[in-house]
Design brief:
- The strands form nine sheets. A four-stranded mixed β-sheet has the order 1-10-9-8, covered by helices on one side. Strands 4-5-7-6 form a four-stranded antiparallel β-sheet, covered by helices on one side. A three-stranded antiparallel β-sheet has the order 11-22-12.
- The radius of gyration is 24 Å and the shape is globular.
- It is of the alpha+beta class and about 575 residues long.
- Helix 3 crosses helix 6 (about 195-205), helix 10 (about 325-335) packs antiparallel against helix 13 and helix 17 (about 510-520) runs antiparallel to helix 18.
- The protein contains 18 helices and 24 strands.
Length: about 575
């Protein structure tokens, strides 16, 4: 550890001395046509397979995967409107039948890096794997992909037709279903005739992080970049794929994704010029002029996202407590979103009161969500709990003294003492959690904070059965860069539908399920507006201020950068001026 710190210190000193001697900081350390990109604090890529399993669904994994393995359809919102990114997609625009019950797709003439053409069979291979192991696929929601495709028919090597189980909103189906598909190299990855055995094999190889560099599986790619190295620490280096045959070739020779244990550590290296594309902690926004003098341009990166803290409704100790709406209302009344946004995030975060993005396109935003049904009000929070039978123990923590009032399943003596698993490494997140702890203590709720690296939080805060040891978690926060980035349609089929893969807290509500289902079928936004209103009131999670993805510091010599609200990067389009 001391040697590593010593080398880092030497690097910082060397870069600073170079800046002083030459009058300009030399950004990065990788060469003239390379870029170093700083990943969020404590975020370390740990999954290369473009089929995520629970616990490995972080957005930075997807960024790496998308430039190695071209998705069927990519989306981008950097132009100001969210739309299909045809250059980054493996297929031509989909053609829906007049009755909407089928869609025909034609692939572009892409080639795998070993010279094998990409064909319809590579898409069918994806379907075979997902169908065989859908309950272990991180994006699965019952009734949706792949259940909503009843037949896959190969027309020719580059064309196939999907038959659908009903008529869907074509815009939603393309953005939120077809965009989940990534063609996979059947010729190189079909380990066994049984697709389930192949799925298990690929997952086992993907969990062997230390073996990525030597494993021939990950050498067969069709994207603009290829893998040079993937270290167990999470540092990833990609190089230009010389065999890429698409229309979105990389301009750079190499890009390195750097990992940092904290935003402070990243900022020190940024000041020394050791990063080409990094971020500025909000505590250092006053240093904008200094950073600009060092050759960076400073640009906020806002997201098509929401931020929240899931309750674990299946937790054996507090799950029944969380199921009481009045408890969730009391907790929400104790969240001072305006103060957190203005003081801790220095005005860069936006208060959020419901399940759809609140600081972008208002098409799907209800008046209920917009107007905040549970404003910061400690007296209202205290009254809700007192009226339902909660009284303070000698240490001030509330306990259920009248179980007939506390609610079904809440036993006498149950204490409002909760543990929050939260990601480490961010001063803003640390401050937010301390503020939340302080306000909850004022209404008689004890909040214990357990800060861990982001991958640990994601791995330990997943869906679970009450009897499982995995259900020990109670609250989970993974929102330093925003908790969830939506595809083009900000619908909730993955987040809050019963049994959905990213419904980490196991929330269940039939009216919500009905509204989500309606939003996938109709082109009218009304069901989405009604969904926005219902979940703003029902509180399936603790709604929190939505921060920007980051405030970026970008080398002024780096061109082609667009900050996509969907958290995509498109590094193949970056170039040196």
């Amino acid at each position: 550890m001391r040697r590593r710190l010593g080398r880092l210190a030497a690097l910082v000193c060397c870069l600073v001395l170079t800046a002083c001697a030459g009058g300009q900081v030399r950004h990065g350390v990788g060469g003239p046509n390379t870029v170093s990109f700083a990943l969020p604090p404590s975020a370390t890529p740990n999954w290369i397979l473009p089929l995520a399993v629970p616990g490995y669904t972080a957005s930075y994994n997807g960024v790496v995967q998308s430039v190695l393995f071209v998705p069927l359809y990519a989306y981008d919102g950097s132009s100001g409107a969210v739309g299909r990114d045809d250059k980054a997609s493996a297929a031509q625009p989909p053609v829906y039948a007049p009755d909407g019950k089928s869609v025909t797709i034609t692939l572009k003439p892409l080639t795998w890096s070993d010279g094998t053409p990409l064909t319809s069979r590579d898409v069918q291979f994806w379907f075979d794997l997902v169908r065989s192991a859908k309950d272990d696929w991180g994006a699965y929601t019952k009734g949706l992909m792949p259940d909503d495709v009843t037949d896959f028919r190969v027309v020719d090597d580059h064309t196939f037709t999907l038959t659908l189980d009903k008529t869907y909103n074509p815009g939603w189906f393309t953005a939120n279903q077809l965009a989940l598909i990534t063609p996979l190299p059947q010729h190189a990855w079909a380990h066994d005739p049984d697709p389930r055995k192949t799925f298990d094999y690929l997952v086992s190889q993907a969990k062997n992080l230390g073996g990525y560099n030597a494993d021939p599986l990950w050498k067969v790619v069709d994207g603009p970049f290829a893998l040079e190295s993937f270290l167990p620490t999470g540092q990833v280096t990609l190089v230009k794929n010389p065999h890429y045959t698409g229309e979105d070739a990389a301009h750079l020779d190499k890009i390195t994704f750097l990992t940092f244990t904290s935003s402070a550590a990243e900022y020190n290296v940024l000041l020394a010029g050791g990063v080409d594309y990094g971020y500025v902690p909000t505590t250092n926004l006053g240093q904008k002029a200094k950073l600009e003098s060092l050759g960076y341009r400073i640009e906020p990166w806002n997201g098509w996202s929401i931020t929240y803290i899931p309750y674990n409704f299946n937790n054996p100790t507090l799950g029944k407590v969380f199921q009481q709406l009045y408890v969730r209302q009391a907790i929400q009344h104790a969240v001072d979103q305006k103060a957190i946004s203005q003081v801790i995030w220095r005005g860069t975060a936006t208060p959020g009161y419901g399940p759809v993005p609140q600081d972008n396109d208002p098409t799907y935003l209800s008046d209920t969500q917009k107007n905040n049904p549970y404003p910061f009000d400690l007296n209202a929070a205290k009254a809700l709990l007192a009226n339902h039978g909660w009284r303070p123990d000698p240490d001030g923590v509330l306990a259920c003294r009248e179980p007939e009032k506390c609610g079904p399943g809440v036993e006498a003596g149950t204490r409002l003492s909760m543990t929050l698993l939260t990601e480490s490494g961010s001063d803003e997140t640390d401050g937010t959690m301390q503020e939340l702890k302080s306000e909850l203590s004022r209404i008689g709720i004890e909040l214990r904070i357990n800060a861990q690296p982001l991958n640990t939080v994601l791995a330990n805060g997943t869906t679970c059965e009450p009897s499982s040891p995995a259900c020990a978690w109670q609250l989970s926060y993974f929102g330093t860069q925003g908790s969830w980035y939506f595809p083009a349609y900000p619908s909730g089929e993955q987040l809050f539908a019963t049994g959905a893969s990213v419904n980490f807290g196991n929330y269940q509500d039939k009216p919500t399920d009905d509204l989500i289902a309606a939003s996938t079928l109709s082109t009218s936004p009304q069901s989405m507006v009604d969904y926005s209103a219902r979940l703003a009131e029902q509180l399936p999670v603790i709604w929190m201020p939505n921060p920007p993805y980051q405030v970026s510091a970008i080398d002024t010599s780096l061109g082609g950068v667009t900050q996509d609200p969907l958290a995509g990067l498109q590094p193949q389009r970056w170039y040196r001026r």
